[in-house]
Amino acid sequence: MRIGLVCPYAFDVPGGVQFHVRDLAEFFTAQGHDVSVLAPVDDGGASLPAYVTSCGRAVPVRYNGSVARLTFGPVTSSRVSRWLEEGDFDVLHLHEPVTPSASLMALWASSEPVVATFHTSNIRSRAMHAANPLLRPSTEKIRARIAVSEEARQTVRRHLGGDAYIIPNGVDTHRFAPDGAVTRWTGTPERPTLAFLGRIDEPRKGLDVVVAAMPAVLDALPGARLVVAGPGDVDEIAESLDPRVRAAAEFLGAVSEDDKVALLRSADLYVAPHTGGESFGIVLVEAMSAGAPVLASDLEAFVAVLGSGPAGRTFPVGDSAALARAVVELVGDPGERQRLSDLGLRRARSFDWGVVAERVMAVYETVIEGADSSPVEPALRAGLLGRLRWPMRGEA
Amino acid sequence: MDILQIATTVALVLLAVAWYLSYSASRLDRLHAKVEGAVSALDAQLVRRAEATLELATSGALDPATSLLLADAASEALERHTHQPLSHDPLEGQTFAGREDTETNLTEVLRAVLQEDTVAALRADVEGVGADGLSRVEASALRVQLARRFHNDAVREVRRVRTKWVVRLFRLAGHAALPHRVDFDDDLPPAVVD
Questions:
Q1: Residue contact B41–A137, C-beta within 8 A
Q2: Is the pLDDT of residue A260 over 80?
């Protein structure tokens, strides 16, 4: 099958959507499909995978409340058209099709069967309302809508109407599989390790919540270590800490993928105190794949990822006292942690790329089947002249 | 304003109106084509699901009572398909030719039959036909879900555009029948989801 994937954000900048597109592309390529990715690229000379075609430099622009690296304008437009023409795809899979970037332009120019995946849970309604009449004819080309989470699905329903089918984000769970190796983060009964991942200066990742819980944790478990992995200004954070908490905390800064995996594999407890803005919670799936017992805030997205088991413990969002109680209880109960770890490993398997990509392939096949049995489409790309004719009776 | 200017303005306005009508008509036409394609895809997936179920029923991997239940529901679905093939005119059969009940029945029978122990036994039968048959039923049931949702989305879009006054006033929809949603129970048996 010839598959065209379009990513709206700069491919050489790390991000959830970019990783999703990369993993899908590599999975389908490995299965023997012909895959091409179109994406903006920040640094023209960077070493890109062979399957990526650049549609131009990404420009940082303020959109939907944050700065995104997007691409637009006539150069991009002609590159998108050329890529579509040369690719001759059986199916076109666009990510974030209403973000003003490559995906939207590909949607505009496409005549292939289109599948769209919605990732965000916070499309700004003002922009969407203003652009709706403009976008509507294009979004009508989409034959199948996928949302990566229930929240993303609700956003689609609210802003575009209609529905979307939920296929979660995939994780390469094998990469995280526990290997039993002892690392410098492996805890002991006297010095149990709690792992935190995420930018330390971004409030919604919730470092504040876990820091506020630490004094109570240290009262009960004087040896507890809090290992914090994530970029941000360490000095600024460390200065404001209670000295006792400062002594118990270890800031790793930005870590490599290997270190992240090793930390998750060896932590006694993975703590996810996020306070909002998470539409999926991929980090929870990673922690579960690594066999780390999960203690997370009860965000809708997190509860959904943990499933009905549930394969992890939750506490009310932002409630440091409840977090501290749960930490103390879980650290003191190795049997319960083992049970959560086993449940987590099992739960994580349903998010493995093997399972997820198979569902995406089912969507492609359904859509292609529908397109093949549609009556011949009118030549919408015929340009202005092609449209300048009165519809004949029976044609309309 | 002389007569030439007025004539030019009128001509331009008429041209713009004509373009807009033509554009709206082809947009609607495209949406109708999408619904027709989606209905055929759904029909094809339903046939595949019934065939896969029948295959599983006759594979000998299940006990005779279970097999008979499955075969009964599956062959009824296939019969309804052959008696009222959608290919004549998908949109004519306003209510999906009344097949909803039959398909809901097949879904319910699959759910009743594919309990956890049965699924585990079939999956364990890797060498034989059991695991193979089960995975084909699973795959087609998933595709039925997808096809039905995509169809209903397409129906909603057509119906929305057809309520626009331009479309109604100029009868841009022609003689095309108003498509309807297809609603039936297509939930996967809980035992195969995990």
A1: no
A2: yes
Alpha carbon distance B17, B25 (integer Å): 12
The predicted model scores a pTM of 0.79
Residues forming a β-bridge with A195: A227, A270
Which chain A residues have a beta carbon less than 8 Å from that of B139? 362
Q: Is B172 on the interface with A (CB under 8 A)?
A: yes
Please indicate whether the domains covering A2-170+354-387 and A174-349 agree at the CATH topology level.
yes
Domain ranges of chain B: 3-193
Domain A174-349: CATH superfamily, name plus number: Glycogen Phosphorylase B; (3.40.50.2000)
Residues from chain A contacting residue B34 (CB–CB below 8 Å): 140, 143, 370, 374
pLDDT in tens, A140-188: 889 999 998 888 888 888 888 788 999 988 888 888 988 878 888 888 8
Cβ contact, residue pair B153, A162, below 8 Å? yes
* Cis previous bond, A310, omega within 30: yes
Is the ipTM beyond the 0.90 threshold?
no
Residue of A369, A374, A389 lying closest to B44 (CB–CB): A369
DSSP A112: S
Q: How far apart are CA A120 and CA A127, in angstroms?
A: 14
Among 3.90.70.10, 3.40.50.720, 3.30.70.3450, 3.40.50.2000, what is the CATH number of A2-170+354-387?
3.40.50.2000
- Largest Cα separation within chain A, whole Å, is 83
- pLDDT tens-digit readout, A121-144: 665 656 666 667 777 888 888 999
- The whole-number pLDDT of residue A147 equals 93
